[in-house]
Amino acid sequence: MTQLPDPSLDQLFRQARTHNAFSGEIDDATLRRLYDLLKLGPTEANACPARFVFVRSAEAKARLAPALSEGNRAKTLAAPVTVIVGHDLRFYDKLPVLFPHTDAKSWFEGSPEERLQRVALRGSSMQTAYLILAARALGLDTGPMTGFDNAQVDEAFFKGTTIRSNVLVNLGHGEPAAVHPRLPRLPFDEAARIE
After folding, report:
1. What b/e readout covers 133-149, taking b as 16+ CB neighbours within 10 angstroms?
2. Phi then psi dihedrals of residue 85, to 5 deg
């Protein structure tokens, strides 16, 4: 594997920002390409616990609106697409297909809900990061957030299922004028060590 050139690293990390205002449209083919990239990222036992709802229609946005915090409502409703990233607490039902070389389903079936929640939440959080990077790779900007009422989102979009919401990610073409200055990050010596 070769190192990506600096322009690619700029697009994925250095110049990429969390956006608060978006324009444009995103077609079905782009959303499918996005999923086909993000699904390739690793998860524990290849469980792939994340489930994605691409909220684009006016009807779906109206169902999402009451769950949004005041500070996130307007920008989310104006975004071309908002992705609800959820996690399936019965992710292990798919393991015979996703991890077929051993009985991985038995590792989780019958486990306490808190263990299933931990594994599913961790995996869907990883898959959210893959979604953000895949979107950036496809030339889209993102606005991830957790400022919403999970119970309301679950009622509106996942009622009667074992899926629970985790993160929302607005997608579109970001408006640079609405980007806040980049906040600091910890330097290596404060956040990492080599042993």
Report:
1. bbbbbeebbbbbbeebe
2. -100, 115
Residue ranges of the chain whose pLDDT lies below 70 = none
pLDDT score recorded for residue 15 = 95
Q: If we measure between CA atoms, which residue out of 170, 169, 160, 82 comes closest to residue 124?
A: 169
Are 139 and 107 in contact by the 8 Å Cβ rule? The answer is: no
| Distance separating alpha carbons of residues 94 and 12, to the nearest angstrom | 31
The residues facing 54 across adjacent strands are 83
**Contact by Cβ (8 Å): 45, 111:** no
d(C-alpha 49, C-alpha 37), whole Å:
16
pLDDT of residue 105: 97
Q: How many domains does one find in the chain?
A: 1
Does residue 187 belong to any structural domain of this protein? no
Which residue range(s) make up the domain with 73?
A: 34-177
**Domain membership flag for residue 184:** no
Amino acid letter, residue 172: G
Q: Is residue 11 part of a domain?
A: no
Work out the end-to-end distance of the chain between its first and last CA atoms, rounded to an integer number of angstroms.
25
Is residue 100, in this structure, part of any structural domain at all? Answer: yes
Q: What is the CATH number of the domain that holds 86?
A: 3.40.109.10
